[in-house]
Design goal:
The structure is a single chain. By secondary structure, this protein is mainly β. The chain has a single domain, classed as Lipid/polyisoprenoid-binding, YceI-like (Lipocalin), CATH 2.40.128.110. The protein is about 15% helix and about 55% strand. The chain has an 8-stranded antiparallel barrel. The N and C termini lie far apart (about 40 Å).
C-alpha cells in the first residue's frame, strides 16, 4: 500500500511540474531582432528583421524553459532599399537558399525569479553554432487587451559572422556583429 501511495505521489509531482510550464507565442508585431555591423571602420550599419515567429515555454517555478525562434531572412531591413536587396543576395544572407535564421535554446538561466541568460544554438546560412544571449530585461504581466499573460524581454549577444560563413567584405569590414532582440510573447490559449 505504501509503494502504491509513493508511486501516485511521484506521478502527481511529475504532472504538477509539467502542468506549470506555459507556452507563449512570439508576437511578430512586437519582436524585432536587430543588429549592428561595421562599415569599413567608418560607421556602423544597423538593421533589423521584420518577420519573426516561434514559441517560448517557461516554467518559472522550476526555472526552466525553451525558446524556438525563427527569423525570415528576407525580411531584413536597413532602411535602405539597395542595401536590403544586396543583403538578401548570395554575398550575404543568400535568402533563396537559406530563407531563415533560427535560434533554439538549450538552457535558460535564472537569478531568483529573473531570467538572465539563455544558452542555445543559432543557425544561419546552414551553419549551427552555440550562442549565449544575455537577457538585459525580462517581465511578464497580464495583457490589458488580450486578457492573457504576456512576457517580454530584451536580449543581446555578440558573435563573429565569419563563423557562420558570412564573410562578405572581410577584412575591410569587421566580422563582429552585435545582436539585440526585443521580444514579446503572448500566452497560448
Amino acid at each position: 500500500m505504501k509503494l502504491t501511495n509513493l508511486f501516485a505521489a511521484a506521478l502527481l509531482s511529475l504532472f504538477t511540474v509539467t502542468a506549470s510550464a506555459q507556452t507563449y507565442e512570439i508576437q511578430n508585431a512586437h519582436t524585432y531582432p536587430s543588429f549592428e555591423a561595421d562599415h569599413m571602420g567608418l560607421s556602423f550599419w544597423r538593421g533589423k528583421f521584420l518577420k519573426t515567429s516561434g514559441k517560448i515555454t517557461l516554467d518559472r517555478a522550476a526555472k526552466t524553459g525553451t525558446a524556438d525562434i525563427v527569423i525570415d531572412a528576407s525580411s531584413i531591413d536597413f532602411g535602405h532599399a539597395k542595401m536590403n536587396e544586396h543583403a538578401k543576395g548570395k554575398d550575404m544572407f543568400n535568402v533563396e537558399k537559406f530563407p531563415t535564421v533560427s535560434y533554439k535554446s538549450t538552457a535558460l538561466k535564472f537569478d531568483g525569479d529573473k531570467l538572465v541568460s539563455m544558452d542555445g544554438e543559432m543557425t544561419m546560412l546552414g551553419v549551427t553554432k552555440p550562442l549565449k544571449l544575455t537577457v538585459n530585461h525580462f517581465k511578464c504581466m497580464m495583457h490589458p487587451v488580450f486578457k492573457r499573460e504576456i512576457c517580454g524581454a530584451d536580449a543581446s549577444a555578440t558573435f563573429d559572422r565569419a563563423d557562420y560563413g558570412l564573410t562578405y567584405g572581410i577584412p575591410r569590414f569587421s566580422p563582429e556583429i552585435k545582436l539585440a532582440i526585443q521580444v514579446e510573447a503572448l500566452k497560448a490559449d
